[in-house]
Amino acid sequence: MSKFLIRGGNRLSGSVKVEGAKNAVLPILAASILASEGTSLIEDVPWLTDVETISEVISALGAEVRRESSSTLFVDSRNVNQWVAQESLVRKMRASFLVMGPLLARMGQARVSLPGGCAIGARPVDQHIKGFQSLGAAVEIGRGHVEVRTNGKRLKGNRIYLDIQSVGATQNIMMAACLAEGRTVLENAAKEPEIVDLANYLNAMGANVRGAGTDVIRIEGVDRMHGANHTVIPDRIQAGTFLLAAAMTGGDVYVEGAISDHLKPILAKMKEAGVEILEDINGVRARGGPGSKPLDVKTLPYPGFPTDMQAQMMALLTVLPGNSLVTESVFENRYMHVGELQRMGADIKIEGRTALITGVPYLSGAGVTASDLRAGAALVIAGLGAQGETEVQGLHHIDRGYSRLEEKLRLIGADIERID
């Protein structure tokens, strides 16, 4: 097993480039299954274990996937001929469930195991199933998998209202509806930038998707779709992580490629704490920190504060003067990093979905373990600002969402190394 050894106290300074968004490229690769003609070239693809997993999932279905360069993937889905996703791969990563919509639309049937992923709380697939049924599919759930069928008929467009703004359900239903007959109107849809990026790729493939980025998405079904070239949007969660790392160390870091519009709730909270934020067309700069004012943070669906940034923000709050509050309204089990931050000297009390953080003068290095992807990023941020040495274990979680994190941090002054 690998671990990070971090010698805290270095002030981060310089420029770091953000990669393509993990949460955008995974549904895009799933959507490539819809192409019965031509090939796709996906650019700005990060080299992550989750990307490798989804590539293996669609390869096992008959697609050809290969790396053309360190950041470009070639996908040929013309020979997709399987409708059962490989269980051992799907259970590695929740996003693998996103192949169900494209498979159902392309093959008329699909069987996918109930998904795995980070243990951050219940993430049911009922909204996905509701959408497939509304499009005319028969659904069977049992023995750890979901099977959907059209029984030889074509999916039919319908008006679908999501009970919650589920990102995954929005993506899965949107992809299935692209090849359905007639119009689908998806209401109370998720509005994340990754939804817009997926819609742009689908439209480049010949689909007719309108309204992505709002809570009503309209899809006019088409008969066939083809491969297309597409560049993935920058990863807003990765960008936010680097900006918070800069603030934690009182640094001065420019995150190249960060889109400030995608980061509004994060930047607003950093400014509120007293960190200087400078935005331009090519990126975002964080200067100074960690800040002088406590914060009240509540996670919400986009455009609210992202749950994927809650743990990283909490790392910063541990050293802000006064009492800060964090309310996690999206997942019920996303405070598993709290015990590890407490090992480093943080003063955090949990009651239900609310955390009270009383700022301490400094954190102390300790041996800690990442319980999930974003918790791991939070522990790295904490280690960078702590006094002494911090060992972070559980790097397989961090590698799911951050490619060569230690190398990028070293380039801006961090004393961090990966030890096998």
TrEMBL record:
One of its GO terms (molecular function) is UDP-N-acetylglucosamine 1-carboxyvinyltransferase activity. Its EC number is 2.5.1.7. InterPro entries: Enolpyruvate_Tfrase_dom, Enolpyruvate_Tfrase_sf, MurA_subfamily, RNA3'P_cycl/enolpyr_Trfase_a/b, UDP_GlcNAc_COvinyl_MurA. GO terms for cellular component: cytoplasm. It catalyses: phosphoenolpyruvate + UDP-N-acetyl-alpha-D-glucosamine = UDP-N-acetyl-3-O-(1-carboxyvinyl)-alpha-D-glucosamine + phosphate. One of its GO terms (biological process) is cell wall organization. Residues 7-409 form the Enolpyruvate transferase domain. Its main location: cytoplasm. It comes from the Bacteria. It is an enzyme of class 2 (transferase). The modification 2-(S-cysteinyl)pyruvic acid O-phosphothioketal is found at C118. The keyword Ribosomal protein does not apply. Keywords: Cell cycle, Cell division, Cell shape, Cell wall biogenesis/degradation, Cytoplasm, Peptidoglycan synthesis, Pyruvate, Transferase. Phosphoenolpyruvate binds at K22, N23. UDP-N-acetyl-alpha-D-glucosamine binds at R94, R123, P124, V125, D126, Q127, D308, V330. Pathway: Cell wall biogenesis; peptidoglycan biosynthesis. The keyword Transferase applies. The active site is at C118. It is found in: Cytoplasm. NCBIfam families: murA, PRK09369.1. Belongs to the EPSP synthase family. MurA subfamily. Cell wall formation. Adds enolpyruvyl to UDP-N-acetylglucosamine. This is UDP-N-acetylglucosamine 1-carboxyvinyltransferase. It comes from Effusibacillus dendaii. The gene is murA1.
